[in-house]
DNA sequence: TATGAATGAGATTTCATTCAT
DNA sequence: TATGAATGAAATCTCATTCAT
């Protein structure tokens, strides 16, 4: 069952994989229970290790949480930034790609729970809130704004205020994310087709943005 | 020593007012910090009483929270139910009145924080979630659905599924509520005019609901 | 058995006395075990209360320790400062009184253990060391130096450097303190008569300090 | 591959040197931080090995500390015992040599920190205290006492109680050691010239001890 | 009715020690 | 021999809840 080209002994592969396992377990637990209510002992149990092991890899609960965010969300933002930097086509295509990637990789996954968590508990953990705003909100919004600036600069988009326009784009997606992830499991929500929603949102917004072609 | 026009001695009025004061303090604290992070000591301090006094009126933290919800939200739902029961005019007027009351008394006030709190922490406190769904979500939705049924029965509304239609009505209001109450303080949102939003929402929905007048 | 003029109920007197009891227990434990090795649970047990009770009175271990130092050592320094401020006689008498008070109230008592503790563990707890140096070492030395300045100003003492002379006075007393409090119980020390030692020290030093009377 | 003039292969020389390296690192760490506050991980890091390696050479923290004491202090006492056993000259010369060796090799070096450490923490680690008293205090004092007995037996010294006289000799040296090793870094001490001190101490003591030469 | 001192279970974090490789 | 990942007991600190007054 082992890939033959894997030359490392089992425990060494384990060692390398350990941080990922811990981060995965932490993500599950944070999303399931929230930040404050997550007990590190439960994270450890979930990862099949002891409490102390967590501290071999992460200095404390806060750093563990930051690592989860970095590993998942910040990483994805970085990728999107790369994509944007080398992209050569129309800005509308780039913008659509970025928003869809955001939806597919974050909003539509378990990671949406992290966003919820920050909304819910950010107030009680100011350092976490600051980190999240700097690493996620600012960078994410900045990326979108930069695409808008690009489009405006290339004459593809009408000259709008990029910061405000970013909010106009981001807000509905946040809403949809909260909507589709039933925050209160027992509170049934009417079905929304996320892809249709995203498609419509992006379509309408882009057509409003684009300079009319004569 | 007592003001003569007061039928009750001062301390007795105090006694009667006490639970209200405690509930007000608890509401403030719950909204400000969330459920788990609210320390009963802070609630007591805020109300100007001792921790022990809280337990004279409320069996425990959970009951205190339930009382806050009952006193404020459930109470308002009850009033709306009363209003609906005696209302005699067109269903569209009734529906508009109910939604506007919801907005004005709950969504536009501090109480929106309770909704946020339940969305955010409900998972971690199943008994609270169950209570909230039974007393607030079910009754609130039920009220709206009943008005829809009334309108359909009276030939005012087109025959739609009341449960689904209720969701369609409720969802945007929840969205707006979350939107206007900045969940993440640092994350600036584009300005929305809540009254215009509500007006448009209700107007459009009602006109779609109403049977065409020949 | 109760003094009749004591009008407070027993537990109220208890409440007032509680911090003192905790400080006494903490002093015992700190002196017996050192700072790091003192477990707050043991302090609590010694005072006949629970762990949590300690935290009603002292924010944390460090503050508890500081309170012990303040209550005992800093307090005594303050008294000595008062004494010195109102004293009207010869500086040599004042100096002797201050040194003897130091010996009797601190060096010859359990409190000498605090000095030992700071010498031994100060390095590992920089904030504690800073506190101790500011509140105890600086003020204590400052008091002695001020008496020297007074004596020099009044023509009673020869013009020496007060700071250096303070060290010359303080050092042997510290030594004697360490000596008489066997730090390693099994390491027998030759008997020293502390009073004779102090008497000689002060006598010699003063006679060296004093301006020759023609 | 090995340097030919080396009879042992490099890794074997390494193996032999290893315990010494560990002991040196441990000494540094113990002196710097005290016994309790020394973390074996830091010792290992300092020696450039892994934590586990420490346990290949020393059963546990206590044994490591004992080994440090043996390697350094007990070893020096043994040498002095050898010297004394074969020494053939006047007892006063022998005594002076022993005291100066003690000063130069222990008191004036980093090893003085071990003495401080035992004074400070001995109480908390009874087994360590017992070991130290048996291996260091008893043997060291015994050595000095034996020289005194030798001198008395040879008619060089006046007939004093050797045990008491030993304390009289040892005490000031301990004092000086504590004095010169600033125990509280911020607490400045007046400068003392250790060599002058030792010289005077020994000179005065010996002249008091020696039988008057007619 | 009101107080607030007291409790103790439970959370995070540290570190000596073990052991599979 | 050497590693270093893993363990788990123990320490500090928090806070919902109780209860003597």
TrEMBL record, chains A, B, C, D:
PANTHER family: HTH-TYPE TRANSCRIPTIONAL REGULATOR BETI, HTH-TYPE TRANSCRIPTIONAL REGULATOR RUTR. Pfam families: TetR_C_11, TetR_N. Residues 16-76 form the HTH tetR-type domain. The keyword Zinc-finger does not apply. This is TetR family transcriptional regulator. Keywords: DNA-binding, Transcription, Transcription regulation. GO terms for molecular function: DNA-binding transcription factor activity; transcription cis-regulatory region binding. SUPFAM superfamilies: Homeodomain-like, Tetracyclin repressor-like, C-terminal domain.
